[in-house]
DNA sequence: TATCTATATTCAAATCTATCTATATTCTAC
DNA sequence: GTAGAATATAGATAGATTTGAATATAGATA
């Protein structure tokens, strides 16, 4: 359980990946336009997109010459809910 | 901005730190009891508690012989809100 | 078929992280 | 002041992560 979310947070724990996620949500869809807005090389972008996709935070569709990426907002909601649940755990009476 | 949250997510991106955060929320307060519930050594626990505290996710108070740790729930809320805000960005009309 | 474009993979390097052992620090209590 | 408990720091190490250069792949088109 924690292992699963630790893995998800790892994906969010990088400035460039957060920027990529924002750009995808704003409507960018292909690597060829993302690359102009990021301070990284094409192979590095490819690496990040793979991480984001494998985590289920985005998914991709081949469309002609391009691979289009889309954010899976449900996964973001799931992460949000996890944080809420942790935060709202009731404190037990502590033995100390 | 993204750099700030990338740093926060890094703190959440470790299974043991998530467990520590949960235990603190449940009412544990001192390292000496945390250590019995985690598969790590005392120096490693100390390292994680420092990371969590420096990120503002917890704070500590010296009380007699012990240092008590408490979770800063506002910081968790801040992280939750960040995810909501990202998720709810409106897509712009894409030029492609 | 040759070429071009978009994307992925391989590989190596530099850096960062989590962890332990050993040791130090800081209190408290005797 | 000595002893003991809780916690922190130093140093070392194994492993993970991020990155770019070079190269490969796959599809479209001339």
Describe this structure in words.
Two copies of one chain form a homodimer. Chain A has helices at 2-12, 15-26, 31-34, 42-54, 73-87; strands spanning 58-63, 66-71. By secondary structure, chain A is of the alpha+beta class. Chain A has a single domain (2-87), classed as Orthogonal Bundle (Arc Repressor Mutant, subunit A), CATH 1.10.10. In chain A, strands 1-2 form a two-stranded antiparallel sheet. In chain A, a hairpin with a 2-residue loop joins strand 1 and strand 2 (66-71). The mean pLDDT of chain A is 92. The A-B interface holds A 2-3, 5-7, 9-10, 12-15, 17-19, 21-22, 25-30, 33, 73, 76-77, 79-80, 83-84, 86-87, 89-96 and B 2-3, 5-7, 9-10, 12-15, 17-19, 21-22, 25-30, 33, 73, 76-77, 79-80, 83-84, 86-87, 89, 91-96. Chain A binds a DNA duplex (30 and 30 nucleotides) through helix 4.
């Amino acid at each position: 359980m924690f292992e699963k979310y630790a893995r998800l947070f790892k994906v969010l724990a990088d400035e460039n990946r957060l920027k990529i996620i924002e750009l995808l949500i704003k409507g960018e869809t292909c690597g060829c336009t993302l690359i102009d807005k990021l301070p990284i090389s094409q192979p590095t972008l490819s690496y990040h997109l793979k991480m984001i996709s494998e985590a289920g935070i985005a998914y991709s569709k081949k469309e002609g010459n391009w691979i289009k990426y889309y954010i899976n907002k449900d996964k973001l909601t799931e992460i949000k809910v996890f944080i809420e649940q942790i935060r709202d755990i009731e404190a037990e009476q502590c033995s100390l």
